[in-house]
Amino acid sequence: MSGVRVLVGTKKGAFILASDGKREKWEVSGPHFAGWEMYHLKGSPADPNRIYASQTSGWFGQVIQRSDDGGKTWFQPGTPPGETKAPDGTPKGESNKFVYDTSQETGAPLTTHQWYDGTQHPWEFKRVWHLEPSLDDPDTVYAGVEDAALFCSTNGGKTWEEFSGLRGHGTGPQWQPGAGGMCLHTVVLDPVNKNRIFAAISAAGAFRSDDAGKTWKPINKGLKSQYIPNPEAEVGHCVHRIAQASSRPQLLYMQKHWDVLRSFDAGDSWTEVSGNLPTDFGFVIDVHAHEPETIYVVPIKSDGEHYPLDGKLRVYRSKSGGNEWQELTKGLPQSNCFVNVLRDAMAVDSLDKCGVYFGTTGGQVYCSPDAGDTWAPIVRDLPAVYSVEVQTLV
Amino acid sequence: MIRVLLPPHLRALARVKGEVTVEVTGTPSVLSVLDALEAQYPMLEGTIRDHATRRRRPFLRFFACAEDLSHDPPETPLPEEVVNGKEPLLVVGAIAGG
To answer: Searching chain A, which residue's CA lies closest to the CA of residue B40?
Structure first.
């Protein structure tokens, strides 16, 4: 029987929510890694029992965790509990090691980026924001980190190497942190063109590689950001999230700081599709699993007030790829709601009737088993939700 | 044998309860104890000292015998009470965050 497993990262631990295909009754496990900030958890599309998790702390730094049994047990890759020597010779304790490649040989001797005051600032690793497992190899996983860079592991997370061509392609010194830090928060792997990777950085913009991560170029043509000196600059845009229509991989959607945008050409050009949204500030955007022009956003009042307009939590759905939006409220609080929905906190399942999920900074995780028509909370009182991912189990 | 008391989150990460003990060759110091600790518990690599710089993380401190050793050069010999096992080396997470 089909089912779903929802992976929730929160400010104080991770939670796993499981249900059958009806998505009415839920089993909740957690907190896993209690007390730690769990920025992101994601399962491998090639092996649903393989889950990667980013565990982080202002005190103790970054830890990568892995489960090979669907989240029942966890370990640091390369360092199983109780073992003190690596039988295969792999260095132990390397799974948490993210060191920027500054060598001349690989073409990225870049060491500074723009700071808030316009001066150059050293690149410093802080944490992993997003883990994106390969679509077909459980041992390959990508990590988007702060300060912005993309790392890759091909041995199940035991060791990590930077794709230094992203920071080193030329615009890196112009990147600057957003309010949440200078993070690479979005990684999208093209399901058809295996050499194509998309990444998004706050506040630099969107980028694409067509050679499996070796070289990169900015893809921000059409973005207009009034808060930067040149509103149509090549980089400097605060892209909050991009999402791909997996059945039409050329079709991308973006929630920018302000503005919702669409691209028909894999990011070569973008057009605003905010249309009749009551406000086009927000963080999340996602695409229906089976309808490439059905998309979802959660409008947030403004960059200064990170909560829903009028205290009403509303998801907006467009069935035309943007411009025309329908508000979805059934089952969502319509008064006194002042939560936020962060950029990695929306996901969809791929059951016949597509389920849509999102988590809030108030600790609620909502599920719509009918593509957004109706909503119900799975849990109401978790710590602030950082991320939501869904695994569809068959 | 050097006794080391880790903060609760690191004990959970290392899957140990209470104090741990490590063997150190030569004159024990914070540096040699951390090297031995990370060799024995590789899951702690990067959590006490930054992976790249090897510097103490800002919100962690080292105490022993009611003294703050955090700002001493890491090669400084540990107090005799720690060396002979009467006192533990304490790795302490700062009370911070409001």
So the answer is: A84
CA distance B53 to chain A (A): 10
Q: How many domains does chain B have?
A: 1
Q: What is the pLDDT of residue A93?
A: 79
B98 occurs within a structural domain: no
Instruction: Tell me the residue range of the domain where A224 lies.
Output: 3-393
Q: Which two tokens stand for residue B74?
A: 């890491």
ipTM comes to 0.91
Record: contact A60-B47, CB cut-off 8 A: yes
Q: How high is the pLDDT of residue A107?
A: 56
Tell which of A32, A59, A64, A111 to mutate to test the B interface (max B CBs under 10 Å).
A59
Task: Say which CATH number the domain at B28 has.
Answer: 3.10.20.30
**Euclidean distance between CA atoms A167 and A322, whole angstroms:** 32
Give the CATH number, domain containing residue A121. 2.130.10.10
Give the domain range for residue B64.
2-93
Q: Residues of A at the B interface (Cβ-Cβ below 8 Å)?
A: 35-36, 57-63, 76, 78-79, 81-82, 84, 92-94, 96-99, 125
Tell whether B24 is covered by a domain: yes
- Per the CB < 8 Å rule, is A58 touching B38? no
Q: Which of the four pLDDT bands, split at 50, 70 and 90, describes residue A134?
A: very high
Among A172-186, A347-361, A365-379, which stretch is predicted with the lowest mean pLDDT? A172-186
Residues of B in contact with A96 (CB under 8 A): 45-47, 51
Strand residues in A71-216 grouped as ranges (E) = 112-114, 120-122, 127-133, 141-146, 149-153, 161-162, 183-189, 197-202, 205-209
In the predicted model, what is the mean pLDDT of residues A56-63? 94
Instruction: Spell out which chain B residues touch chain A, with contact meaning CB-CB distance below 8 angstroms.
Output: 7, 9-10, 13, 15, 38-48, 50-52, 57, 59-60, 93-94, 96-97
pTM equals 0.95
Q: In 3D, which of B32, B7, B3 has the Cα closest to residue B19? A: B3
